[in-house]
Amino acid sequence: MTDKKQLKARIRARMAKTGESYTTARRHLVGPGESPAADGGWRLHGGRHPDSAVITNILRNAGAEITEPLVFVAGGGLGAGYILWEWKHDDSRTLVLGFRNQWQYPRRWMEKTLTRLNVPFDAHSTGGAKGAAQRLTAELDAGRACVILPDRYHLGYWQLPAHLDGRGGHPVIAYRRDETGVFLDDRNLVPLRVPRERLDEARARVVSYQNSLVVPRPGEPAVAEAVRAGLADCAEHLSATSDSFSLPAWRKWSRTILDEKAAKGWPKVFADGRGLAGAMLSAWEEIEPVGMDGGNLRDLFADGLDEAAPILGLPLGGLAEEFRRIHGLWHGFAEAALPESEYGRMRELTATIRESIIADGIDPEAARAGRELWDLRAAADKAVVDLDRFADLSKRLTVIYEAETAAIAELRAMITG
């Protein structure tokens, strides 16, 4: 037991220091992980990104030989998006960053990706909580795994404070139930059980995808056709001129950081230096794989390019290496935004919550970490922070924008040529 606790502490420390996912941090410390754990007839394979992981894990549990990087590519691969939210009720600022194709449309992305892979599915949604609960029960009792979109706050295990009630969530798999709870696959490696009442509330909370339910009926996926279509989608989508939902979003962000006149300019939004710590922590959480959404995903896309190359007969290896380099550029931005020397404890607590979900399920230690984390965030948001780092962050974003623009142009020429 002592050895296990020591290993957990080492993994969490590495996650906090490097921003790595649990799986990557563990592999660096002790080598490859064990075989996937079984919970009844379901195998818990883990995963890197919520959206691609749910499809991959359903297909693999049905016997298909497919990897998450290829599923991610089939879905259109990368996206780009930036929003700065200002919340008056708690005087906070939060960054929302989009790194997946169609990042603002989770259900649309899911259905598009399943269709490309030639995986039939049933899709349901209803405003009635009773009917939604009955439908989920019927599907689980029939042995069919379901993709649902619950609100993170109501799920409970992410240890979020009440002011984040209704801010949304990401897809998870519901794969079995007992009399009072439902077992979820949220890239965890041990069983994760949520009380049924809490899950039903979480599913009903967000109006835009209230009680959403997607039930794939997997067979053998059409991988080559899906991957080719996904790469073409990625190249076209990120070649668009939108500064909200395509690569120009990074250029817009780099300029906004220094713009003293724009309403959303950082010198104006953070004029008194307050609220910046919370915004920077939200950026670190979204950019690094240690966060809830799998990070900037440029490394996952690179792995997908390597796996797609022999399938499509295309020389994608150079682009794969370039996107790994770009992944490193994003890591550098995150480190500059939230340096460990200043915010090490908040990073450590974030890693503690993530590691606990993956390796322990619902753990009292994570609840304590959550309370401390949000107390620290509240205190940090009230502190005056030096704004001198803005110029450095802007420059880093410009470099990322230029690198991604060139890489996508090369991908587009390769796919269309």
Automatic annotation (TrEMBL):
Q: Record's superkingdom?
A: Bacteria
Q: Which InterPro entries match?
A: BtrH_N
> In this protein, which residues make up the domain named Butirosin biosynthesis protein H N-terminal?
49-186
Q: What is the recorded name of this protein?
A: Butirosin biosynthesis protein H N-terminal domain-containing protein
Source species:
Acrocarpospora macrocephala
